[in-house]
Please model this.
Amino acid sequence: MKVKAPLVERIKGHIRGNPISFHVPGHKGGGHFLDTGAMGWDRLLQYDLTELPGLDNLHCPQGAIEKAQRLAATAYGVEGTYFLVNGSTAGIIASLLAATRPGDTVLVDRDCHLSVYNGLMLGRLKPLYIQRPVDQATGIPLSINPREVERTLGRDKGVKAVMITNPTYYGVCSDIKTIANTAHRNGALLIVDEAHGAHLKFADVLPDSAVDLGADMVIQSAHKTLPAMTQGSWLHINGGRANRRRLERMLGILQTTSPSYPIMASLDNARYIMENTGARRLEEVLGFARDARLEINALDNGLFCPDSEYFRARGSFHFDDTKMLINCAQAGLTGSRLDQLLRERCGVYGELYDTVNWLGVVTVASRRQDLERLVEGCAGINPDPAGDRATLPAFCQGPVPDAGMEPWEVLNRSCVSVELARVQGRIAGTGVVPYPPGIPLVCPGERFNSEIIAQIREYISHGITVKGVKDGRVEVVE
Ligand SMILES: Cc1ncc(COP(=O)(O)O)c(C=O)c1O
Model:
């Protein structure tokens, strides 16, 4: 009989044997947890095992984990897949460290996640940033212009890697195939942070996944868009350019030596489900999303739900229609106010909001009634033309602040906490990052200027969490 999910089967087989645990973890299969009955801890925690005979070892896989990883690689059509138990964060940092040596230059999408910036620091890398045009109506950053990549790589010879986010948190996709060709022609690897795109491979109508477009390493948060547990992610490697041994070394350094079996089993599960029913379910939920969009756009209360057609008409390469993006600027609401109203009135919880947008993620696990509830919530929104309308675009896209020093140099300098009002001209000791979307306004080593200070204040005034700001103070280099 063909094994559906080898790691899941192995763990189930182990549990069936009623084993007596003299090994870690200390809960011994679910004992001594608060409210075990009500929370169902005991069922889940039976799976929370360790490297027992037959259960393989993530750091030198030769059995069930190796098989599960190989099946994932086959499902994605790649040469190798590595399970990540610490989210895409560890995979992104490992890929950067594998592709470079200290002092190397990397071309970085400025819309990158914090983990990329942390990778730059740990790898002592020099970033060159590439910025995206912004859609004025929604404030959403659009696709990367491949010609911009070409120009930068042509001008700055010796760039070792190009790091791109695709899709973005908002669902915007770039022309990865052209960017991959450009990177390779210029001797650079292409690493794609596809944290939000693990599902793309499974639906023909969605933008293609970077695994099919020539990227050398692709990192996906399976937990974001597939039925996998939080932290469950994977890294795919393709082609002969990336140094696989160095990548394995970096993953070995960055990942825990006690990887969670429930997380790894959930990755095995996600691959199996997507391979077998993913395409059909995605088609179905995309239909629910399309209907909901039409209904929201017909409400006449200022809420606007753009789709791939909208973004393509604005020059973007593509957009992932599983993202239910609702722009609320014309309704006179901020994204945080819309989020609050949807939560309070109909129990709908979104994935992210910014000054003028709200975003929900639709996956194979979404149901028609979930989207109907969202439409119902939106129908109850009254426009408020005099309301709390943000003056900012959704994502501040000013010029990159001047660099006072390289990001990694900051790690070795002492920093002090200074009031935001007094930091103009000072060098940032940590990144200042509105969360979501997790894209820095200032990176470590860059100088604060008056525009950036005003933008930070604006985000805070609209209830957006800004990491790196505490009690109105930020860290600067002494
Ligand atoms: C674009 C992007 N990349 C990477 C990450 C990190 O992923 P993970 O939470 O799986 O570590 C995130 C998390 O939100 C993200 O939005």
